[in-house]
Amino acid sequence: MASTVEELKKDLEEVKATTLRVRKLEENIEAERAAHLESKFNSEIIQLRIRDLEGALQVEKASQAEAVADLEMIKNEFKEVESAYEREKHNAQESFAKLNLLEREYFSKNKKLNEEIEEQKKVIIDLSKRLQYNEKSCSELQEELVMAKKHQAFLVETCENNVKELESILDSFTVSGQWTSGIHKDKDKPPSFSVVLETLRHTLTDYQNKLEDASNEELQDKLTDVNKELSHLRTKCADRDALISTLKVELQNVLHCWEKEKVRAAQSESELQKLSQAFHKDTEEKLTFLHTLYQHLVAGCVLIKQPEGMLDKFSWSELCAVLQENVDALIADLNRANEKKFQEIAEKNMEKLNHIEKSHEQVVLENSHVKNMLSQTQREQASLLAACALMAGALYPLYSRSCALSTQRDFLQEQFNTFELFKLEIRTLAQALSTVDEKKQEEAKMKKKPFKGLIRVFRKGVIAILAANRLKILGQSCASLFTWMESFREGIGMLVCTGEPKDKHKFPNPNSRICGHLLIGAAKNSFAKLMDKISLAMESLPLQSSRSITYVEKDSLVQRLARGLHKVNTLALKYGSCGHVPILKLITHEKFESACEELNNALLREQQAQMLLNEQAQQLQELNYRLELHSSEEADKNQTLGEAVKSLSEAKMELRRKDQSLRQLNRHLTQLEQDKRRLEENIHDAESALRMAAK
After folding, report:
1. Residue whose C-alpha is closest to residue 470's, from 405, 420, 528, 401
2. What residues does 487 pair with on adjacent strands?
3. Please, what is the average pLDDT of the chain?
4. From what superkingdom does this record's organism come (predicted)?
């Protein structure tokens, strides 16, 4: 039982070790360098063994020369020479067995290396196929990039045309010189394009820095792995040195035991001679006894004691019958004793068999328990892998969404800046439009009141349109990071994305608060409330009152516009600038409405062009990021292929070196066999010389 459990534990450990090795081979092809170092270490060990064998050969040659020189002195010690001959023969057999073992190890290692080379070739073929696929995808992405650039150029042209239309519309009104110069400066250098380019540059530099950091971290991880493998190899080297020292000590012990056995063999030979002499004497005595008995039988004499004198009456046949009966009785007794003994042996065997069956059942139960444990561990391992995959899948979307939030923050800052610029432009526009009405205040008050109402309606419409567009842009540019599902049945859960996230989602989730129908409803409600407040404030005031409109809300855009208009009116009244202006210089109501419509249309076009430009810029960012990823992957694949080719060439060189070392070992072994044959011939010559001398 214990042996089976230990074997199962060993099998489990071997399975775990093999899985770890397979993972290491799949993660890194650089593990082949460790194999290369191990093969170098093995070749050095083989060279050291070859040197030891050469030293042993030299020692044996010296001993052989001494034996040839001392042959004349050891004629009386012929038995010791025979024992030395047997020893040499035994050593030759051991060396031949070692040679066979080395050949088997060489063939097995050669097969393993060939299998590894085939696997690496398969990996190289797969990598080349992936390279081709990546090149195709890269070419497709480049084509898409060219089309996107063309589309971007078209959009830039449309944006410039829209800007020119806006300038022509603003030039139709009477505006001060400072304002026009400021507008032209802003028009010559539009802030949106420069900000987009700066964001592009910042994001590209950030991605480049992140890629460099990731590559540095990977290189550091690989360095730590290589250092760990190097320390492991050093420990292996120390263990093998210790093994070599222990083997040397064991060899010395074996030699000492062999000398003791030699002495025992000499003693046993002397004892065998004594026993053979005693056996010869015993056989001679038995032969003489049998010979005398045969002679007595032939002569008709039966050697039976005759104490009572009754044996003279029995004949030879009667004596034979009596002896036969006695022999039959003895055989029957012997058979009974054998049956009893066999029955006892059978009972003992049955008990042993029952004990073995019980132990077998226990082993089967333990085996089933171990199998269940193994299946449970496999399930736990699979669940752990799934959990790790989920964590990895949650990590990448979180990181990408944090990047998206940073880009959205920059975009919102840019929108806020543009909003401030639009505020200034609206103030200047309101001031420019209010100067025309203030000049005609005394001459045509009744005509001016509805005209002022139209200007205020225009201002309200512009403010409402700007607010709605800002809310729409906010809703379209937002992206959800987490989605919490809080309910009684489902509990709390977190959304985990495994694909490539997008920075902008148009109505992605009906449950989110900022996007979808809720955003549209909120925008409509806010616009309706704003219009209701403005209409109530306008209706509550009399038509002929010249005071300014005030609201309860502090620091609102409408309140600021009203304050600016009030200041302009008071200044005009102070300086007496409200003179009679002929009606021919005024702009007609239809022309003013058409100008307002054109201005609204131009604003809408500009916003749409800005949205398209932002989308194109984001698509360009994604395409550049993909191109950088593909280029980095191609560079890594090229590096891995180069390292694999180098490791293959090094493995081939090591195989050639091992072949050369094995050939040298074979040559040394053949030389050893030749030397042994010469020794045998010399021993035979010495034996023949001793025999001749003895004769």
Report:
1. 420
2. 491
3. 70
4. Eukaryota
Phi, psi (degrees; rounded to nearest 5) at 487: -150, 170
Q: What is the mean pLDDT of residues 79-90?
A: 72
Please report which confidence band the pLDDT of residue 420 belongs to, taking 50, 70 and 90 as the band edges: confident
The string of DSSP codes covering 373-437 is HHHHHHHHHHHHHHHHHHHHHHHHHHHHHHHHHHHHHHHHHHHHHHHHHHHHHHHHHHHHHHHHH
CA distance 224 to 139: 37
Buried (b) or exposed (e) across 415-454, using 16+ Cβ within 10 A? beeeeeeeeeebebbbbebbbbbbbbbeeeeeebbebbee
Show the tokens assigned to 662: 């094995």
The per-residue pLDDT for range 91-126, each reduced to its tens digit, is: 778 878 887 888 888 788 878 888 888 888 888 888
Q: What is the DSSP string of 656-682?
A: HHHHHHHHHHHHHHHHHHHHHHHHHHH
488 to 491, 492, 511: CA distances (angstroms): 6, 9, 16
Radius of gyration over every alpha carbon of the chain, rounded to an integer in angstroms = 55
Mapped onto helix, strand or coil, the DSSP state of residue 587 is coil
Read off the tokens for 101.
Answer: 């073992």
pTM: 0.20
CA torsion, ordered 193, 194, 197, 203, to nearest 10 deg: -120
Number of H helices, E strands in the chain: 10, 0
